[in-house]
Structures are given as structure tokens and as C-alpha cells.
Amino acid sequence: MTIALTSGMRQNLTALQQVDSLMETTQNRLSTGKKVNSALDDPVNFFKAEDHYNRASDLEAKKDGMSEAIQTIEAANTGIEEIENLLDQMKSLASAAKTSDNDTDLEEQYNKLLVQVGEMAEDSSYGGQNLIQGTSNGISVEFNEDGTNTLSVSGFNIAYDSGSKAITMTGSGAGASAITISEANFDSNASIESAIGEIDSVIGQLRTEAQKLSSSLSTISIRSDFTSSMINTLETGGDNLTLADMNEEGANMLMLQTRQNLGTTSLSLASQAAQSVLQLF
């Protein structure tokens, strides 16, 4: 004798299997917080969200580059400010030499500061980049994910030459001229005024270069803030396409548990009809 499932039992069993499948899906959404976890769940939303997340990730990498560029420019600005302080100190020594009988000591101090200007420029690097010393220094900052939108930041060169014992500054940009501060010669008021004039020329050029770097710094900061906003927008867009409503999923789970209990009870009742045959023995 063959004992087969009754029609009622098959219907209840199928319903329970469907409920189990829905519960598994709901449990997965509750555990991951996402209604779309793979392309099988919703291929359109899944791949759209992946595009958003990938672009956000690429922009995050560019944002790191912008942050490094900002630090490089700030290091250069710090160097410029301190070099200007050294030059002011040298100018004070030269001015003092006009009315001093101790020109030799003043010259010695002046020349020591002249060397320090070059060393200060040399030490103003950040991450291997130095915008105020080098003959071809400069950085290129990428803003978008494929690196096609960029900003070039030009540096300039200020260095001490031990051979000629002079500081030479060459500004940025095409046609920039070189300005030199030579070793002290305080033998006459004319030579002292010449030294002061050289210092004033370098200070003026330094301020011009500082303005250029500040403008670039402001531009990069604005682009960095914009990139942060774009990353948030892209990630929010990706989340909207894939994240689950946890309140809704919680309610679904309660409903499915109720259906599962009812299905189990119904299956038990359906099986009682089949078991009634045992009463014949």
C-alpha cells in the first residue's frame, strides 16, 4: 500500500516552504541592513549603487591627494613667513650698521643669517615636496576621479650658494627674474643701503609668491570641501538604493512568524485526517 501526501497537506507544506524562504530573506536584510545585497536581489539598483560607491571611493583617494597638497603649501607658507622674519632681522642689522662702530660683528651676524635663509628654504619641504626651493618644483593636484581636472601649483627657488656667498631667489612663472642678496659689505652707507635694497626686493617677491600660494591653497580647500559633499551625496544615493527599512523588515518578520505558526497548525490538522486510518486497526 502506498501512503501519499494528501492535497491539503501538500498545500500546507508548500505554504510553509514559501514562508521559510521569505523568513530567510528577511533575516538576511535584518542582519545586513540592506534589502539589496547582490545582483540577484535587484540587478538595476545593485549595479547603480556599486557605481555610486566606486566613484565615492575614487574621489576619497583624490581627496587624500588634496589634503597632502594643502599640507605641502602650508609648509611652504610657514617657510616663507620665517624667511621673511630672518630678512627683517638682517635688515635691522644693516640699519644698525649705519650708526655703529662695530661693523665687523654686524657683518658676521648678517652673513650667518644669510646662510640660515637658504637652510630655512631647504627645510620647508613636506612629503618630499618643496615649493620654495628647487629649479623645477611644483605640484599638480587632481580633483575628479579620472584625474582630468587639475590645478598646477608652481613653486619658486630661493637658495644659498656657498661659492658666491649669496642668496638667489627666482620667482615662479615665465620670465621671472632672479634677485640676489650678497654677503655683507658695511664699509659705507652706500653699500649698506644697497644691502637693504636687496632685502626689500626679496621680501617683496616673497610676498608676491605667498599670495600666489594662498590663492592656490584657497582653491584646493574649496575643491576638497566640494569633494567631501560629493562623496556624501554618492554614498547616500547608494544607500537609498540598497538599504532596508528596518522597521518594515521587523514587522515582516513578526508577520512571517505568525504565518509559520498558523501553517504548522494547519499542517497538523491536515495530517489528522490521514492518521484516522490507524483507528481501523
Automatic annotation (TrEMBL):
Domain of life of the organism encoding this protein: Bacteria
Which keywords does this chain's UniProt record carry?
Answer: Bacterial flagellum, Cell projection, Cilium, Coiled coil, Flagellum, Secreted
Keyword tRNA-binding appears in the UniProt entry: no
* Signal sequence interval, chain numbering: none
Molecular function terms from GO: structural molecule activity
Write down any Gene Ontology CC term.
extracellular region
Q: Which residues form the Flagellin C-terminal domain?
A: 198-281
The UniProt entry's coiled-coil ranges are 56-100
Keyword Secreted belongs to the record: yes
Which Gene3D superfamilies does UniProt cross-reference here? f41 fragment of flagellin, N-terminal domain
Q: Which Pfam families match?
A: Flagellin_C (PF00700), Flagellin_N (PF00669)
Per UniProt, residues of the Flagellin N-terminal domain are 11-135
Q: Which family does it belong to?
A: Belongs to the bacterial flagellin family.
Q: What does this protein do?
A: Flagellin is the subunit protein which polymerizes to form the filaments of bacterial flagella.
In its UniProt entry, what is this protein called? Flagellin
